[in-house]
Amino acid sequence: MPRLTSISTGKGDDGTTSLGSRGRVPKDSVRVKANGSVDELNSVIGLAIASGLCHRLMVEAPLIQHELFRAGADLSFLEDDIHKAKYPRVNERHVTRLTELVKTLSALVGPLDNFILPGGSMGAAQLQFARTVCRRAEREVVTLARQENVNPLILQYLNRLSDVLFLMARLENLERGVAEPLWDVSV
Questions:
Q1: Topology adopted by domain 25-108+117-174
Q2: I need a surface site. Which of 7, 38, 74, 126 has the fewest CB within 10 A?
Q3: Structure confidence at residue 152 as a pLDDT band (50, 70, 90)
Q4: Residues 138, 139, 142, 148, CA torsion sign
């Protein structure tokens, strides 16, 4: 892992940033935007954790944060640089873990009778916010993948993760005894 000896280098003052492979790109490049959304998602999950989630989610959410750091590292390298540097990548086990978590959480919260609005408890609202950031990150990685080679498992991971975050929000409301805010179609 890289050792960070200085946080501020001034090298980005020209509107560029370095990738993990040390190449420089504009800060508004599609790759940087996608990686930035993954970073934002990780921060929103950190807010949910800081709000104090139920025990089960306090175990799962930090694992997801570590996996998102892995996704960020994966996005920081061009696919052509895979063999030049060893770095953490999203792999099949991460997608499989989330797929299993979807099954487990679905069984705990049960089926939906209606669409729900983001909200309920503070933690559930923050997890729903994380879900929307996850969807944006996924869209941005799709855009990147149209232009450059990207590890396809990142897309699978983000797609599963948005489902997991939705179910985590439902579980948080259930565990807190807070009714899910249902969409009132008459409004």
A1: Hypothetical Protein Ta1238; Chain: A; (1.20.1200)
A2: 7
A3: very high
A4: negative
